[in-house]
Amino acid sequence: MIELEDMPELIDPVMVAAFEGWNDAGDAASSAVAHLDEIWEGKVFAALDAEDYYDFQVNRPTVWMDEGVRRITWPTTRLSVVRVTEPKTRDIVLIRGIEPSMRWRSFCQELLGFAHELGVEMVVILGALLGDTPHTRPVPVSGVTSDGDLATTLDLEESKYEGPTGIVGVLQEACAHAGIPAVTFWAAVPHYVAQPPNPKATLALLNKVEDLLDVRIPLGELPDDSRAWQLGVDQLAAEDSEVAEYVQQLEEAKDTAELPEASGEAIAREFERYLKRRDNQPPRHETGPGKASEGDSGE
């Protein structure tokens, strides 16, 4: 571990983590944490020693020039902290790095050591995977946890996955064994357009973080980038009849599978999001009986 400076006492801290590599289709998850770090001006306070966890033939260092001096940036995992003030003040510890090449258990224990030291109340891990999902529909994001009580409280799925896993799955289980509540959000990225970036999937993950932590995340240009991305993929699909036909098949399968949900829980969730955002708007002037409020059509 390389600690860069002492940390102040944090307010209701949570930890949000994402790792480049196998668990990061379209760079959606790592881009979400990068966005939080940028818009909230994260302050790096520690970095893991790259020698302990990375194979430099797999993740090579990069050379760059700094005012005529050659410098090397080593692949690693860095921790930064941001303070959010809306709707309430709390601190978020951001973990942004690359899936390690070795010593995964030690890697997770080192991160959890920071979580214990900083008094982190919950760990939120972001991931993205390739799936049979059309780019024209909302990005499916599933929330899972290994904690049965947390699954019930937050209306999440209890993880029952069996098979190969990445650092996201390993960290999730490490949190469970350490007694730290942990949630993982997975965004599904269309496998036929897997190349990064995927701002639409990044935006979907940020919406989930916003809802879970009850914070307001400035989205900047992400909504515009998301629309531009979808239009660009629309164009590419239109130029290839086989791809266009395949996308249509995915759309039909998706719409059929989600039809019951679309009439119930999904609408309720979207309405709750609308009310939350509406509460942040300035109040309208009250009107007398029988008079329409400003902006109401009366229809």
TrEMBL record:
Q: Where is the composition biased (Basic and acidic residues)?
A: 270-288
* Superkingdom to which the source organism belongs: Bacteria
| Gene3D superfamilies linked to this entry | PAC-like subunit
Task: List the InterPro entries hit by this protein, alphabetically.
Answer: Proteasome_assmbl_chaperone_2, PSMG2_sf, Rv2714-like
Q: Where is this region: Disordered?
A: 270-299
Spell out the coiled coil positions from the record: none
Protein name per UniProt = PAC2 family protein
User: Which species?
Assistant: Streptacidiphilus alkalitolerans
